[in-house]
Specification:
By secondary structure, this protein is α/β, with parallel strands linked by helices. It has a domain of 96 residues: Calcium-transporting ATPase, cytoplasmic transduction domain A (Distorted Sandwich), CATH 2.70.150.10. It is 54% helix and 13% strand. The chain contains 19 helices and 18 strands. The strands form 4 sheets. A 7-stranded mixed sheet has the order 12-18-17-16-13-14-15, sandwiched between helices. Strand 14, helix 14 and strand 15 form a beta-alpha-beta unit. Helix 3 packs across helix 4, helix 4 packs across helix 6 and helix 5 runs antiparallel to helix 6.
């Protein structure tokens, strides 16, 4: 009770009002929303149209900026306020709390410097481009976090517990419906035909066939008789059986699966932005060059000219185009894949797909369609082999069946009798050898391996919701050849990203030289470096219609 009160004090005030921290978070979420970015773009556009991008006039001997008094100045400040504040907060939090130098630090310094010398439009333009890039990237990296509850729903809420008569122990056997949570190890449970098995256990009476496809992926029901193991969440098809509970709660097969999926998901760190990777170099380099230019020009000319050139260098040094190099290309590639019935959930997965060196395939529902080999399966394996990708079949089925399908598909390496954790362990073993691993599957039993793999691909049309949520890619068309297409698309996307980075860095270099020489001002510098962003976006957009076999 004490802990609950403590939590309430943090989240609400004494009168029940929302705490300041919650208000700050809400305000930030509004600032970082798409409507806010669109409003910022509108204000910036009107500012440029009404004022021509000039935010200062000549102020006589002091040489500092004089406000023209036009309404456009306020519009530029609106854009700066909306897009600039979240960037400033991110930069300060990273610097003082996390001890990290991010690209947002250079952006913030440039914005503040522009405002100090009356270049509001330049400050707003830089803030807007960075905010737009971040929104585009966030959009491509968002991933759904649903479906785990469906795993738990496979287990029935109640169990038919076998009990003896409470009045006469020798009078016979009776049954009582009890919540599954109340079962204990050693309890005797009866399962009627067509019902799900509520816990892990060992059969002590009766014979039946159990559908274990939700857990092991086996294509055919498995015979169960006294001494056989049964698993929670699987379906009793025919006869009535009684089993002794051996595992409950967190130790049961289905709960273990839930836990492993969560753990595997937490191991995947988000892709670090390219701009942030360079930030530790860009920030000191920009500051040093700006200060050196300022001092050199001040020694040869006047203070105002030196200040303008120093600020211009920081503006053109801002890695806006560099920040857009990856997300624009990724969005275009994901859009093209969607047209082909291939749903890619993240830019990370698309980038890693081009580096895949080993492909693991589930059998039932993936390579196998019905007792037959899926059309195009052998051609897909052969095409991957030509691209330097080796293949492995992971199956929960029996040895004879697994090896027969592997031979038909042209896969020389096969592992059979695999439980979900066995598949995940195999993927991890391959990764430990330095392989970039793809896992293709369709069932709940594949969900852990799909999460652990560098790229998880689920058969979307026939696959379970759990598998689709666990995977990075969903093949809505159920066409295995899409895996080959996706690898080629990834290679093309990475090449486009590298070209975009080259374009942005070349434009920035030329702009820096022009800034040092005084050819550019903060406003014209912002527009030139905005040109680099436009070129990067256009080049990335071309990927959307590029022909990929």
């Amino acid at each position: 009770m004490k802990c609950c009160k403590a939590e309430n004090r943090e989240s609400t005030g004494s009168d029940g009002a929302i705490a300041p921290r919650g208000i700050v978070d809400r305000i930030q979420s509004v600032f970082e929303s798409w409507p806010a970015v669109v409003l910022s773009a509108a204000c910036l556009g009107l500012s440029l149209w009404l004022g021509g991008g000039h935010s200062h006039g000549d102020c006589g001997g002091c040489g500092m900026a004089a406000q023209s008094g036009g309404a456009w100045i306020h519009l530029a400040l609106v854009s700066l306020f909306i897009c600039g504040l979240p960037l400033l907060k991110e930069a300060l939090v990273a610097l003082f709390r996390d001890r990290q130098i991010k690209a947002t630090l250079l952006i913030s310094i440039a914005m503040i410097a522009c405002v100090c010398i009356g270049q509001e439009f330049a400050a707003g333009e830089v803030a807007f481009i960075m905010a737009l890039g971040e929104k585009l990237e966030t959009m491509t990296l968002k991933r759904a976090r649903k479906g785990l509850a469906k795993l738990v729903s496979l287990v029935p809420p109640t169990a038919r517990k076998v009990i003896t008569c409470p009045k006469c122990n020798a009078a016979g056997i009776f049954f009582r419906e009890v919540p599954v949570a109340e079962l204990a190890v050693g309890d005797l449970v009866e399962v009627l035909p067509g019902f799900a098995i509520p816990a892990d256990g060992e059969v002590v009476k009766g014979e039946t066939m159990v559908d274990q496809s939700s857990l092991t992926g086996e294509s055919e029901p498995v015979e169960k008789k006294p001494g056989s193991e049964v698993y929670s969440g699987t379906i009793n098809n025919f006869g009535t059986i009684q089993f002794k509970v051996t595992k409950i709660g967190a130790d049961s097969s289905i709960q273990k699966l839930v836990r492993l999926v969560k753990e595997a998901d937490s191991k995947k760190a988000p892709m670090q932005r390219i701009a942030d990777k360079w930030a530790a170099i860009l920030v000191p380099a920009a500051l040093c060059l700006a200060i050196l230019t300022f001092l050199s020009v001040w020694a040869a000319m006047d203070f105002h000219t030196a200040l303008i050139r120093g600020v211009t260098i920081m503006v053109v040094f801002c890695p806006c185009a560099l920040a857009l190099a990856t997300p624009t290309s990724v969005i275009a590639a994901i859009g093209q894949a969607t047209k082909r019935g291939v749903i890619v959930k993240s830019g990370e997965a698309l980038e890693r797909m081009g580096k895949v060196s080993f492909a693991c395939f589930d059998k039932t529902g993936t390579l196998q369609q019905g007792d037959r080999l899926r059309p195009g399966a052998k051609e897909t394996i052969d095409a991957l082999s030509r691209l330097g990708v080796r293949s492995l079949m992971l199956s929960g089925d029996r040895k004879e069946i697994a090896e027969r399908f592997a031979a038909e598909a042209g896969i020389g390496d096969v592992r059979y009798g695999c439980l979900p954790e066995d598949k995940a362990r195999t993927v991890e073993e391959l990764q430990a050898r330095g392989e970039v691993v793809l896992m293709a599957g369709d069932g709940i039993n594949d969900s852990i391996a799909l999460k652990v793999a560098d790229v998880g691909i689920a058969m979307g049309g026939i696959g379970t919701d759990i598998a689709q949520e666990a995977a990075d890619v969903s093949l809505v068309n159920d066409d295995l050849s899409s895996i080959v297409y996706l690898k080629r698309l990834s290679v093309s996307c990475v090449k486009t990203i590298k070209l975009n980075i080259t374009i942005s860095m070349c434009i920035n270099f030329c702009a820096i030289v022009c800034s040092v020489l005084g050819v550019l001002t903060p406003v014209t510098g912002a527009l030139v470096h905005n040109l680099g962003s436009v070129l990067v976006i256009l080049n990335g957009a071309l990927l959307y219609d590029r022909k990929i076999k």
